């Protein structure tokens, strides 16, 4: 049976996929996952739409434009939710559809949410899933019609922490990668991201959900991307509201400062109003997303498709 399942997964990864098709992230055994009876939960929230929690089986949902340009860029999208849930539509599928309208392929990553009930070493699992997503996209780029040299990663809130970790710890492989495929994203898009796990600016809820109530100085250092920026860190686009009452603006400004200190190309947009997640459409989606697309064009990721 395992051989049959593996064969089916290889077929799905290596052939044309239906737009919006959800496929397993791992082609074999899912690392650090316990076999339990805990099931994934889905619920509707009138403010933020569809929520997914208790995620123990990670997936990718692939979105490609009807007419995909040759060598198209692709963005891996990590929804937010404080490491306890995922805003899978608002910060996932809808954004993927918007990218498709601009000629950009997108992949929504439903990453595992840290929980000792169904995971071992829960603290490393989100980074593990992000690296696996990058690996799978590059591994199957030819079949999916995307450019292996234009693989970006995007994250909202806690998903921004996942994306920033992938962008600052790409040389710390947490997955099997026998072909030594690059795990470095080519660019990052971070929207009101959780960056720091420090006491001063960190989002305590995300930190506690990922690491638990007791954390060491070494853990804070490793899981605070602003402390791990280097000259080879990927370029980044950041957007944040100045009145964010959940994730302090300093998360973005400190990361931007670290990028510039290391001479990494970066662009940051600070909006006076918007609170956390731009939930009241302030700024309007077209405003910040349009700026993101413009950044991709001026940075070269979309230059050939103008």
From TrEMBL:
A molecular function GO annotation: hydrolase activity
Pfam families in alphabetical order: BD-FAE
Record-linked Gene3D superfamilies: alpha/beta hydrolase
Record's signal peptide: none
Keywords in alphabetical order: Hydrolase
Matches recorded under InterPro entries: AB_hydrolase_fold, BD-FAE-like_dom, GDXG_lipolytic_enzyme
Residues annotated as domain BD-FAE-like: 62-259
Organism: Niabella pedocola
Protein name: Alpha/beta hydrolase
